[in-house]
Amino acid sequence: MLEINKIPYANNEVLAPVSHQYTGELGDALDKLNTRYSFVTMDGRHKAFDNKEKMFIEIESVQRKHNKTIQHNDKSIKLTSLWLGEEHLRREFDKVVFKPYSSIDDVISTHFNQWHGWAIQPAEHTNEEDFESYVQPWLNHIKHVFCSGNDEQFDYFTKWIAHMFQKPYEKPGVAIVIKSGQGFGKGLLTTMLQKIVGDNYTIRVSDSNQVAGGFSGHMNNKILINLDEATWGGDKKSQGRLKALITEQRLTLEAKHKNADEIDHFGRFLITTNSSYPVPIEIDDRRFFVPDVVQAKPSREVFKELVKINSSENALKHIFRYFLMVDLEDFLFEEFPHSETRKSLQKESVNHNDIYTAFMLACYEGEEAAAALCQQNISASQLYECFNEWKSHSAFKNTPSSITALGTALNSAGFIKRRANNGYKYSIKCEDVENHLKSKKII
After folding, report:
1. Which end of the chain has fewer CB atoms surrounding its CB within 10 Å, N or C?
2. Topology of domain 354-439, per CATH?
3. 341: helix, strand or coil
4. pTM for the full model?
């Protein structure tokens, strides 16, 4: 468990002091300059990091703002000329990295760490009144709105959030997908988390090309990435890129006008959408936890209370403390509860990506064109003819197929053909199709 009083946040960041031989007015001016700026080499260029504003700026900006002349030992010395001319007078870094909750062991002293801590400090103590006023309303919303009152889904959802704050250096490999209509609080949840994480380490993306396209440098150094209505709709290339971003620990990210660079990536994805097919969930895919959002829209009073909580830094401090104290022992990301909404998205993915399983699903759902799958003593060639008839009226009408591939798919599902006098025949029962689809968690 983390020690609450040692949680790093942006306003309590302590920088290593810079020792120098200068005293008096010049020494004080150098100390102030080093308190404000660090000298950093990034992408082959020299820049300064403004420790107050938490942003990189051009060296010329420091020179224009602070290059005053100071009398020292009967000499006139320009402050920034001295600071830039002598390396030992400044805090200097030769590489920029991003390591949340880093220790001296995993960040080299000459590397500049862009992690500066959370946006707010957690509360030192939460009493019963604070919990009921600030924490419980959000827990109620997550459980009864986003998870329809399901205890297992609620437990996973809250631990997913808690892990982000307790172990931001571990990438979960599982995204949360909140699928609902408008007015269920998806945006409020993102806002609440963003206010704790900090604007520098969060990003909202509404265009899938910003994630799946070639230019992805904007997702560098992010802890929380909200894909808000950024859907994939069957685009295979985009689907592959999304899956890699969710799971891979090291990624090649491309920044505009710069060479591709392989970096550590700690981003976790919160996908909020009302699209019928926002993400691809294929058979055995473990990348998406999809809770069952309640059908009835919450009252306006509920939203007013959550908005009020989100606008109070004191309230957010207590929420932050709660998630820092959640017990994550034995918590495994890949062991999330399955939901009806996930099943529906998995079915939708089958109908976009897997022609042979889609044929089996169509049979189970009673589509007349696919009913031949459950006929007794049907020859392999007759079944393939019926399959092609179904295919011609489906979303797969232009998808290549073959009788061999169909046979392989049926065999993998446990439907074995038997040799007959004039070829091979199948005798598949409807319950066999149902059991296979259930074993794959498609139904």
Report:
1. N
2. Arc Repressor Mutant, subunit A (1.10.10)
3. helix
4. 0.84
